[in-house]
Design brief:
By secondary structure, the chain is mostly helical. About 50% of the residues lie in helices and about 0% in strands.
């Protein structure tokens, strides 16, 4: 596992690895909070996004397929897809200095300060880890502490991506969990209490 000086990114990557490792053999076709995408497609999207961040930073190869149009078919193992993508992103961000004011990212606004760029990649990994975990009935790894650390990046990046990467922000129901994780998910257009439909 590649680690960086960016502890937030390392935590988010670990959360995504754990979620993917916990998918049961018969869980790859399960529905997820991402409408129209099953667990396999969310994995493909999440891995592709990390490769896209790495490619923008290094000029190296990006994802083999459009992360926003995942095929739903894995050519190899889930870890064989995910691990190289996370390693590439971690290695790329290891070269980003904390005081760099112009770091390239693959989505609007395309150039942001270092902490926001790292937060964007971490946000992507952690939220898709949540998608996979809840789809497979496992405890979500998106803790309130991790969500609070991700929120500054979400505040900068969510609005330009509404309707594309994120849905409209939701209002938490009275009496619902209103911790940092629930607030972040709702802000990004996800229902924090989402559960897979009954079979």
């Amino acid at each position: 596992m590649t680690t960086t000086e960016w502890e937030l990114l390392d935590r988010a990557h670990a959360t995504l690895r754990e979620a993917v490792a916990g998918v049961p053999a018969d869980g790859w076709d399960l529905p997820t909070p991402c409408a129209q995408w099953n667990v396999t497609r969310v994995l493909q999207h999440a891995a592709g996004d990390q490769l896209a961040y790495a490619a923008r930073l290094t000029g190296g190869p990006g994802p083999a397929e459009d992360p926003f149009a995942p095929s739903g078919t894995l050519a190899g193992t889930p870890a064989g897809l995910l691990d190289p993508a996370l390693a590439a992103a971690a290695e790329a961000f290891a070269g980003v200095a904390p005081d760099d004011a112009e770091v390239a990212v693959p989505l609007p606004p395309f150039s942001v300060p270092a902490a926001t760029a790292v937060g964007a990649a971490a946000l992507d990994a952690a939220v898709h880890a949540w998608d996979i975990a809840v789809a497979t009935g496992r405890p979500p790894g998106l803790t309130d502490e991790l969500a609070a650390a991700l929120r500054p990046a979400a505040d900068v990046l969510a609005e330009p991506l509404r309707g594309f990467a994120y849905g409209p922000a939701l209002t938490l129901a009275p009496g619902a969990d209103d911790g940092a994780a629930a607030r972040l998910l709702a802000f990004l257009g996800r229902h924090p209490g989402w559960a897979a439909p009954a079979a």
